[in-house]
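The following record pairs a protein chain with its ligand, 2-acetamido-2-deoxy-beta-D-glucopyranose.
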Amino acid sequence: MHSLGFRVNALLTLGVTVLALMCVIASLSDNLSVPSPSANVQVLNFNWFQKQSEGNEEVSLTFKIAADLQSMFTWNTKQVFVFLAAEYETPKNSLNQGSNLRGKEFNLTLHWHVMPKTGKMFADKIAMTGYRMPKEYR
Ligand SMILES: *[C@@H]1O[C@H](CO)[C@@H](O)[C@H](O)[C@H]1NC(C)=O
Ligand SMILES: *[C@@H]1O[C@H](CO)[C@@H](O)[C@H](O)[C@H]1NC(C)=O
């Protein structure tokens, strides 16, 4: 005859094993659904664009984002971080052009990090091209 303690222990071990197995299955099945969000960002207005006394440039803009993030959310999704970054190329060899962004082309990149309940976190991004800074400060 097994003691009560032994039975409880056996039951717990089984429980933990089943749980671990379910976590593995969860992360594997989640890997099958690669999120494919779409985004569209429209710059509505450059509110201001200035050169500060320290030489930094500051821009304020209003934009409209239409994004479909639905595919990021599965039953295994815990948290999603999404942010938009403006990316531009700076001239590498001419110092005197410094931080002059006037009339410069830039990309807006939507980055996302998906943190699943179990399994590996993953990140990806979509780059949207063809934006341009105003030619003059305002
Ligand atoms: C998830 O999918 C990627 C490519 O789609 C593959 O490289 C990776 O090994 C997969 N990971 C698991 C845990 O199956
Ligand atoms: C914008 O993105 C495109 C495609 O990813 C890249 O070729 C281009 O160099 C980028 N432009 C800037 C200004 O970062």
